[in-house]
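Forwarding these from the shared drive since the link keeps breaking.
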Amino acid sequence: QVQLVESGGGLVQTGGSLRLSCAASGRIFSINVMRWYRQAPGKQRELVAAVTSGGNTHLADSVKGRFTISRDNAKNTVYLQMNSLKPEDTAVYYCNYLDYWGKGTLVTVSS
């Protein structure tokens, strides 16, 4: 069983920054891809970012240049650094690993 716990969400003004964290349990964490998804009200869940065990990353076009994903395999934690936030970034952000999902953390960007 793998448990994912997100933290770091909150309310921020346009142009602000937040850093999300996802702490994972399970000793196979280091050999698979970790992902961040988000779901805005009334919209489908979408992939935001992904990072491999080797540190290769993928970012959605909508967040390139503003968001950074990273991971610390020793701490079993993946991070999402979000800068230059926009109101359209408002969503619940979910951490994903294989078939496991966290409960999500809410990010609200005010205009």
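-- next protein --
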Amino acid sequence: VQLQASGGGMVQAGGSLRLSCEASGFTLDSYAIGWFRQASGKEREGVSCISISGSDTYYAESVKGRFTNSRDNAKNTVYLQMNSLRNEDTAVYYCAALTIGVLNDATCLGIGWQDWYSYWGQGTLVTVSS
């Protein structure tokens, strides 16, 4: 039972990628889903989250206006569309399900709330080059 992020790769600055988060062994439609990233030598940080229905989304300030989080519960998949990519977006991206508590800005993006998320997969590497 886990989530698997895919769709990463190498892209030039200013380019776009779309990440997918697919569930294995369970259905996504009962969980809010978070996207997180970890750059080399840095702590893992919250990037964006989406509510169960998809009606509420949260974004880190660094990605607002560039990234779009969406979900298709019929396909059991959550997507992260990343546009206008920057060098500083280079990281391993993970998705995880919020299994404890309620989704809000704090539980999505705040430090210390990642323990409330489960079903972490291996992540997908995004490399943005100049």
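Helices lie at 105-109. Residues 8 and 126 are 5 Å apart (CA to CA).

- D.
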